[in-house]
Amino acid sequence: MSTPTDGLTALLQAARDGDPAATAAAWPLIYPELRRIARARLRGPGAPSLATEELLHEGFLRLAAAPSAPLADRHHFYALAAKAMRHIVIDHLRRRHAQARGGDWQALSWDTAVVDLAAPAREERLLALDGALQALDALEPALAQLVELRFFGGYTEAETADALGTSERTVRRQWAKARAFLLVQLDD
Q1: Quick check: 30 and 11 in contact, CB under 8 A?
Q2: Closest Cα to residue 26, out of 79, 63, 67?
Q3: Alpha helices of 101-117 — where are they, by DSSP H?
Q4: The domain containing residue 11 runs over which residues?
Q5: Pair 119, 111: CB distance under 8 Å
Q6: Fewest Cβ atoms nearer than 10 Å: which of 18, 62, 68, 87?
Q7: CB count, 10 Å around CB of 162?
Q8: Residues 129-182 pLDDT 10s
């Protein structure tokens, strides 16, 4: 995230307003950070079977197709990108669960079924997390945004504080509050 804020924000806004030249100019500047966000979302337990590039490009296309609203700064853009990628991952998992529950039914041998037992449990936890995050967003949108940046965007405490315009201490305190809320929601 070392690009200058003023020029990049203007380029991103022009790209969102439909300027193809601005899109072409902004793409090389935003690509490394979007790739980092996509990679962060796809690693770890419960990671969906999406390729980093697939998630990155689909997220960018969704952002480009979304109604254009003014961007505050590049952090606002990256927060929107992390949110779009989160929705793509959740949509992907929902489609896989729909197929697992009868869509495109295929007979499995016992060996194949045993190998695949752990993956659905992780995916169900990720879908439950999305539901809990939606509940948090309805109650305290700022905390939901923090979770999206930290968990789905892969931001550090310092990057999150910078993106939200607050201190790292506040980020730590709000992160603890958000995690507690999500844990209670997930226990239900």
Answers
A1: no
A2: 63
A3: 110-115
A4: 5-187
A5: no
A6: 18
A7: 15
A8: 888 888 999 999 999 989 888 887 778 899 889 888 899 999 999 999 998 898
Place of tokens 């079977």: 49
| DSSP one-letter code for 165 | T
CA distances from 32 to 53, 56, 80, 160 (A): 11, 10, 16, 17
In angstroms, how far apart are the furthest CA atoms of the chain? 58
4: its two tokens: 């200058």
**pLDDT, averaged in runs of 10, over the chain (188 residues):** 62 82 87 86 64 83 73 80 83 72 45 43 74 90 88 84 91 92 83
Q: For the chain, what is the domain count? A: 1
CB atoms within 10 A of CB 171: 23
> What is the Cα gyration radius of the chain?
18
